[in-house]
Design goal:
- By secondary structure, this protein is of the alpha/beta class.
- It has 13 helices and nine strands.
- The protein has helices at about 5-15, 25-40, 50-55, 65, 70-75, 80-85, 95-110, 115-125, 140, 170-180, 215-235, 255-265, 295-314, and strands spanning about 40-45, 125-130, 150, 155-160, 170, 205-210, 240-245, 270-275, 290.
- The protein has a six-stranded parallel beta sheet, with helices on both faces. A three-stranded antiparallel beta sheet has the order 5-4-6, with helices on one face.
- Strand 4 (about 155-160) and strand 5 (about 170) form a beta hairpin.
């Protein structure tokens, strides 16, 4: 087992379930988090699904967003959440793309969530970079493209499902054409509207990570920019905050463990996490880490109010 995975296993064994946090402790945590961010010279932000959930966009459980526009797909196929719909084994490609068209349109038309807008304001004026495992387009629309790495891709784009070429195309116009053709009650698109790669004729697929995910130039460019930013941040002796927001335990090697290790090995780095389901960090980060255990929406409301009060008093 590698040192990093050993660190992760140690952390899991020490934290079976987060303890309840009283209001006074929570307020102190949020105040400290605000001070840490205010003092930071550079911020490396890692965003997971909890961030979108805090904005009301729950892709993994049943939600009001699913019940209305996606009820017809539940009646036809039996699933009851957006991710279940994405991974469902459809009888035909026409049925699969009937759901995908509705899902893509929903994601691309959904307003940028309040927490994303608040984070953008909190980071305004600082040097920052955002790494995300989310594929719902919220990060892409909330932050400048040069400051984002979409590690798992984004439903806003389509790729050849092989892939035979390094090409991404906008997904929304394709989805709109399918939805218009299906009508309000339809659950399958006409065969002639199935999106196909013009190079090889195979079907296109959403640009989200699976066995055929395209790590093409767009993905590699994001990787290069992220690695360059982190390298510059850690080499300059400046105060760097690794800010982790709503990251679960499914893919710890993408955000969580690298953030721990970069904080551990750099004395000017601080690890800050906001998460409802976690309450502490590895012992190796003691003194240079903080976990705020609570709803991201509440935390950002408090941080934003605090920032606005300071600006008014200045």
């Amino acid at each position: 087992m590698s040192r990093l995975m050993g660190l992760y296993a140690q952390h899991l064994s020490a934290n079976a379930a987060p303890p309840a946090v009283d209001k006074a402790t929570f307020a102190r945590q949020v105040e400290q988090a605000g001070n840490v961010l205010a003092d930071a010279d550079m911020v490396v932000c890692g965003i997971g699904s909890g961030m979108s959930t805090a904005c009301g966009y729950d892709h993994y459980g049943r939600s009001a967003a699913f019940d209305c526009p996606f009820a017809k797909f539940e009646r036809a196929h039996g699933f009851s959440s957006l991710m279940d719909g994405f991974y469902h084994l459809y009888a035909t490609n026409e049925e699969r793309w009937g759901f995908l068209a509705a899902y893509i349109a929903y994601l691309q038309n959904a307003p940028v969530g309040r927490a994303y807008r608040q984070l953008a304001k909190l980071l305004d004026g600082k040097e920052y970079f955002v790494l995300t495992t989310n594929v719902d387009g919220q990060v892409r629309r909330a932050f400048p493209s040069e400051s984002v790495w979409l590690f798992q891709g984004d439903f806003g784009f389509l790729q050849c499902c092989q892939p035979c070429c390094d090409e991404l195309v906008s997904a929304l116009p394709v989805a709109r054409a399918m939805l218009d053709a299906m009508g309000d009650d339809g659950v399958a698109v006409p065969s002639d509207l199935l999106p196909r790669c013009p190079q090889c004729g195979w079907l296109r697929s959403p640009w989200v990570r699976d066995h055929g995910f395209l790590e093409g130039e767009a993905w590699r460019d994001g990787k290069r920019r992220y690695e360059r930013f982190v390298s510059d941040a850690l080499a300059g002796g400046r105060r760097v905050v690794f800010l982790e927001l709503g990251v679960g335990g499914m893919t710890p090697s993408i955000i969580e463990i690298p953030f721990w290790e970069m904080t551990r090995t750099n004395p000017n780095a601080f690890y800050l996490r906001v998460n409802m389901g976690k309450a502490s960090e590895p012992r190796q980060l003691e003194g240079r880490s903080l976990t705020v255990t609570g709803d991201i929406a509440n935390v950002f409301d408090m941080l934003t109010n605090e920032q606005e009060t300071k600006e008014q008093d200045a």
